[in-house]
Specification:
single chain; 487 residues; two-stranded antiparallel ribbon; 12 strands; flat
Length: 487
């Protein structure tokens, strides 16, 4: 039997067959839904370029059969088109959900026309609920233009509570300011009408009332909403009188609220400046016991010369038990507090009626200030309708001007007062000398400090010359003095 004969194909024919097989495999791999990620046995050599395949091509390549492909296209108008690709692959895990966005690495738009490209849903659209997405712009505008529901009165009060409180406080402050201002002015005018008009106490005792000599000059000088002053002059024994009315701060709402805790009263103070030759050595003060002790400690003249009298002068009536007398001597106190004053104001029976208006009396010829010889009277002001109740208190002012202007001390009392005043003058002189000495020492210290600062800025050569000059001056000063005599 003859041996079989092999048919040898030409080399060019073999190369053409291999190229055709390769082209068919590459076209199958580029078909829609056929991805390299879905090939379980694909290797990196299968995705190589044709040039690489021509150089090292192997005929024993085991390729799997292409999977069946199904394409469904949705053309519904409201929703966007969705393309789903299903591949029968037994190697995929059935529990793992398929990838909603297939890989488009090998997608060729020119080769497959008419198939919609799948779009991945955005994260913002997926995170926002559908009911909150405005589908109609007109509906959104209508929702914005819709009026808010009306609030109840309770809600309005809670919303504007701070504004309501501020406006209410401002209204109360303004109302209190004008009403308090009118009340203070009414009290001051009532006092001036009672005691400073024609045929009144001060009109009979002073020739000039007010701040000027004209007919249209006002009687009262207003220094504030709660301070009024009255001036009178033209009387013997004195240079003039100044009455200062200090009212409660009725116009200030905060001060008015503070007065609920610390109450105050309207007061009037009369200060009479006596002539130098018209007042002798007189120092007396009368007040309630607690106030008298305070005055004796705080007032410098009372602290130096006077003391609280424990007992009344022998054989004389004395002030009410509520009052205390601070005086330099019992003789002066007994002469100043006469029986007429006790019967009218400071006695036991009279003080029961007038005690609520009385504060203090203070007469001194050693008062600290621009004027030394001053009579001071301090009373409580009643309201505008009861101004006549302090008539007797106001009458004390001209009474004591005349009494002290004519008063002369006895020789025995004068010797004591002169010794006390001489001692006080010496102490005042020592204090003045001490102040002057302290001033000189302070100036010397400041001058020395300035010189030291100036020396610190000088150079070493200048300092050496200055020290040498000072040394020579000291040596010359310490040398014995020699007097030359001519023969």
């Amino acid at each position: 039997m003859a041996a079989p004969t092999w048919i040898r194909l030409p080399r060019a024919t073999l190369i053409l067959l291999l190229l055709a097989l390769h082209l068919s495999l590459s076209v199958a791999a580029q078909f829609e839904g056929f991805d390299s990620d879905e090939l379980p046995h694909a290797t990196a050599a299968d995705l190589a370029s044709p040039d690489d395949d021509e150089e090292g091509l192997d005929l024993d390549v085991d390729l799997p059969a292409p999977p069946p492909i199904s394409v469904s296209v949705s053309v519904s108008a409201p929703s966007p088109p969705v393309t789903t690709t299903t591949a029968a692959n037994p190697n995929l895990n059935p529990t793992t959900p398929p990838n909603p966005t297939p890989s488009l690495d090998f997608w060729d738009e020119d080769e497959f026309e008419g198939i919609p490209v799948p779009e991945a849903p955005s994260s913002d659209a997926s995170s926002t609920p559908a009911e909150f997405t405005p589908s109609d712009p007109s509906a959104a505008d209508a929702a914005e233009a819709a009026p808010a529901p009306p609030r109840s009165p309770a809600e309005l009060l809670r919303a504007f509570s701070i504004e309501i409180a501020c406006v209410s406080f401002l209204i109360c402050f303004l109302l209190n300011y004008f009403t308090g201002k009118k009340q203070n002015e009414a009290i001051a005018l009532a006092w001036a009408t009672k005691f400073a008009t024609r045929d009144s106490i001060f009109d009979k005792n002073f020739s000039l009332l007010g701040t000027g000599d004209g007919k249209d000059t006002p009687l009262l000088l207003k220094e504030g909403q709660d301070v009024f002053k009255f001036y009178a002059s033209g009387r013997r024994f004195c240079q003039g009188m100044l009455a200062t009315m200090e009212m409660r701060a009725r116009h200030d709402l905060l001060s008015k609220l503070l007065e609920l805790v610390f109450p105050r009263k309207d007061t009037i103070t009369f200060e009479v400046v006596m002539n130098e030759e018209s007042m002798d050595h007189v120092m007396v003060a009368v007040a309630r016991k607690k106030a008298a002790k305070t005055m004796q400690k705080e007032e410098r003249d009372l602290q130096r010369f006077a003391s609280v009298l424990p007992l009344a002068p022998a054989g004389k009536k004395w002030v009410a038990d509520e009052l205390a007398v601070v005086a330099e001597s019992k003789e002066v106190a007994g002469d100043m507090i006469s029986e007429a004053v006790l019967d009218q104001v400071l006695g036991e029976k009279a003080f029961e009626k007038l005690g609520k208006w009385f504060i203090s009396l203070h007469f001194s010829d050693q008062l600290a200030g621009s004027y030394k010889k001053v009579l001071s009277f301090k009373f409580v002001l009643p309201d505008a309708n009861n101004m006549a109740e302090m008539t007797k208190l106001v009458a004390l002012v001209p009474f004591y001007i005349d009494l002290i202007g004519r008063y002369k001390l006895s020789s025995h009392a004068r010797s004591k007062t002169d010794a006390a005043r001489t001692k006080a003058a010496q102490e005042a002189f020592r204090e003045l000398q001490g102040v002057r000495q302290e001033t000189l020492l302070r100036k010397k210290a400041e001058k020395k400090k300035l010189m030291e600062e100036a020396e610190a800025k000088l150079s070493a050569e200048v300092l050496r010359k200055k020290e040498e000059k000072e040394r020579n001056r000291q040596m010359k000063k310490g040398a014995p003095k020699v007097k030359m005599l001519r023969s």
